[in-house]
Amino acid sequence: MPTADKHHRRRRAATMSKSNWFRLSSFQIFDLMFNQRNIHELTCLFTIVVILTCQCLADDGYEMDDFLKREHSLTKPYQGVGSSSSSHWDLMGNAIITTEHVRLTPDLQSRQGAVWSRVPCYLRDWELQVHFKIHGQGKKNLNGDGMALWYTKERMQTGPVFGNMNLFTGLGVFLDTYPNENNNHERVFPYVSGMVGNGTLAYEHDRDGQSTELGGCTALVRNIPHDTFLLIRYTKNRLTIQIDVDGKQQWRDCLDLPGVRLPQGYFFGASSVTGDLSDNHDLISMKLYQLTVERPQEEEEVEELTVPSVDNFEQLNKVEVQEEGMSGVQLFFTIVFSIIGIFVLGVVAVVMYGRWKENSRKRFY
């Protein structure tokens, strides 16, 4: 009996050990599955947070469509540029195509060139990223004249505004490298500025467009060893210009203005001009993106614009026309004639006094 009882207890202990092992294995398997599920959920959550954060940081709250608008973009190897019927861009003037860039003007005097899109743009909200390079042999302030980027009703026109026509209709963004107004000490050149023309507003070349500009900033873009970029964003009637010219791969604000109203169906372009002073003006790429922006229902039903305009433009124009002071020669002659006038008046007064005195004596005789 004792032997049988011992054997029974051994079998019971073995059975309990197997049961405990199965229970332990089940808990381990469940714990492993639970941990894998948590890891998967945490991974998904982290991915979503990263995507949302990158979108916010990359575009300041605007969702950029990944699809590049190629019919409005100019990129290497520039196959869509030329005179063929399938081309989306036209060259004019002294502009040429190389494997690395579209050179609007060479570093030679009295040259002008441009490139213009053939396809009108009907995007309501867009962003244009421009990669460019301005360089030459001229020293500081002995170079010129700069280049311009356009979104205008007219295309393929020549004129005095960086190689394009004056009295244009639309948007012009100017990269001015030479100060024409020598008395202006407020700006440091090269200087980036924006202007909206309505077909009757003239760009004053001699005053560097100060009377019509919407704002701007200094951008040291000549003979830079790193890449230089400019961004133009138009959305919800707001015009934003940013630059990246410091080699830090960071956009820097240059102009941010609400109340800018640009019609659809205009053409993108770039132009440049040289005079007595010159530079190489190279356009490496122009990339246009469509911006996806939510609007209230009432904004969707706004009547179509026909003429570009800027709200409260008169208040933006803070440039006062000051009367020029007299030069040294003018001051000299003014003093001389004043002295002569005083002398003549004195002589006349003496003569008149002498005659009056003589008449007074005759009365007593």
TrEMBL record:
GO biological process, any: endoplasmic reticulum to Golgi vesicle-mediated transport
Keywords annotated in UniProt: Disulfide bond, Glycoprotein, Golgi apparatus, Lectin, Membrane, Metal-binding, Signal, Transmembrane, Transmembrane helix
Domain L-type lectin-like: from-to ranges: 66-291
UniProt KW Metal-binding keyword: yes
GO cellular component, one term: Golgi membrane
Transmembrane segments: 331-353
Family matches, as PANTHER family: VESICULAR MANNOSE-BINDING LECTIN (PTHR12223), VIP36-LIKE PROTEIN (PTHR12223:SF20)
Protein known as: VIP36-like protein isoform X2
Record organism: Salmo salar
